[in-house]
Amino acid sequence: MHEVFIAQSILDIAITECRKAEYTRINSISLRIGKVSGVKVQSLLFAFDIIKTDTIAQGATLICEEVPIVGYCSECHNNFEVASELILACPECGGTRFSITGERELDIAEIDVD
Amino acid sequence: MKVKVVRRILEANEKIAEENRKLFKEKGIFTINLMSGPGAGKTSLLVRTIEALKDKVSIGVIEGDITGTDDAERINALDIPVVQINTEGACHLDADMIREALGEIPLNKISLLFIENVGNLVCPAEFNVGEDMKAMVLSISEGDDKPLKYPLMFQESGALIINKTDLLPYTDVDVGKIKRNALSLNSGLKIFEVSCRTGAGLQAWTDYLTTLLAT
């Protein structure tokens, strides 16, 4: 996954929002990251720490809320949530006729600014 | 202070992808983003597909490679509009690259557009470029463990073309395992077994495309 590209996109969006409202410092950026998205949080944090230098986010932390995979099984008719990245069978009944109903979340939720 | 900023991180690409999608819809073009690992047979599949359908359907192709024009030349030999994108290092096509290439395709004259992505089983699945569907090629010579190793591409695709079936007698590949695992990841996946070299199985694929275009 392209964690550097994603980190840059996060930084760009946050800085643009700050410019519009004339905030001068970003303290933290809260993200919602779906397990289905495949983003590696550790790599993302690493990439962000490098690219934030000399910007209004240079002291900022990324706060990552990991969103589990949500699915629906058409065999046992249950919704389910799992934290692992790969599902081959319904965790409730072991059935293989299911669909992933959650989105591949990769969102900024809020920023903490001054 | 905390400020609510609800934004999708990949919105820049998604916005351009949506613009591309609107343009294709306006022009009545069905677009397929064709992906696979390197050498699985994307270009060969396109050549066979074009040969079978070009008298009935106007087809255009956007070729994506890191460098070189070999693939575009193979398509060009069939007298089909084609443009070659060289990413010069980028491992996948994105919506902006497609948008820039559209000026060189006669959009008013085609009804089916193939976008042949960079050979890569990982990254192309992560980026929308404005296509109606993603399709992928997996060759027998790549082995039967690929669906579980590279799940996203199988999950994102509407069709899986298993190519090089003529090599089955020379490998220990279990096609049933490929299909079972691929369907576990994506129960709606349409699977075709072909050999672009011998022509086996291609009729089912081209019939499927004809059906897609009719709906």
What letter string, H or E per element, gives the SSE order of chain A?
A: HEHEEEEE
How much beta of chain A, percentage-wise?
Answer: 25-35%
Count interface residues per chain for the largest interface.
Answer: A-B, 29 and 23 residues
- The DSSP helix count of chain B reads 8
Mean pLDDT metric of chain A:
87
User: How many H/I helical runs of chain A?
Assistant: 2
Distance between the termini of chain A: 32 Å
Order of H and E elements of chain B: EHEHEHEHEEHHEHEH
Q: Proportion of β residues of chain B?
A: 15-25%
The strand line-up of the biggest sheet of chain B is: 4-3-5-2-6-7-8
Q: Provide the residue-averaged pLDDT of chain B.
A: 95
Distance between the termini of chain B: 52 Å
Global Rg of chain A: 17 Å
Estimate percent helicity of chain A.
25-40%
The spatial strand order of the largest sheet of chain A comes to: 2-1-6
Structural class by sheet pairing and helices of chain B = alpha/beta
Q: Which blocks of ≥5 consecutive residues of chain B have pLDDT under 50?
A: none
What is the 3D shape of chain B? Answer: globular
Rg estimate of chain B, integer Å: 17 Å
Largest sheet of chain A: 3 strands, mixed
Oligomer state equals heterodimer
